[in-house]
Amino acid sequence: MSPRARIAWGASVSTFALTALVAIAPPAPPSASALLQAYVAAHPQALQVGGHVSAADITRDAYSAKPGVQMLAESGTNYDWARIVLLSGGWPVTDSNVTVLVRWMRQENGPTNWWNRNNPLNNGYGSGGGAGLGSYPDLVTAAQMAAKNLATHSFYSSIVAGLAASAPPEMIEPAIWASPWASSHYGDGTHWSHAPVPVVKAPTSAWGD
Residue 129: inside a domain, yes or no? Predict the structure, then answer.
C-alpha cells in the first residue's frame, strides 16, 4: 500500500471511530418531572369511601368587630375616655397624648370622680353651663365636644399642635396652662401633678347605657 493510500485509509478509520463514539454516547438523564410521572405510573393509588359515610356539619367560630369608640366605652375607664377624645379629634392615640389628657382630667375633677356631670374636663362648649359647670348626656358626647372645642378655637392651637405631633407631655402641658381653658391657669403649672394617674372605671350609666 502506497504512503498516500495508507494516509487515506487511516483518516477513514479515525472518522469511523469518531462517528461510532458519537453514536453510542449515553442518553441524557430523565428530568425530575419525568421521574415523578414514572413513579406515579408505577405506584397508582386510589381512595375508596364507604357508602355509610356522610358529610359532617362544621360549626365555625363567629367573630365580630366593633368600632373603636364603642369598644372603649364598654371598657369605660378614664384612659379610655382620653382615647375617645383623641379619636374624635383625629389625633394620634399614643401613650404620650393619653398621659396628657388623664393628667388634665385629674386637675379638673380628680381621678376618683373623673366622670362628674359627664364632663371630665369641665368643658363649657356645648354643655349648657358657663365656666365648665354644664353637663353632657353621656361621656362619648363629652369627649366629642372636648375635641371639637380644642379644634375650633385658635387659642387652643398650641395644644392641638402638640397632640397632632404626639409631643412629649412636658411640651403640651405648658400650652394647656397658658390657654384660657382654666382661669387659674393651673398656677402656671404649680398646681399640676405629674404623679401616675390611677385607672378608674366610670359607672355604666355615665356612658348612656
Answer: yes
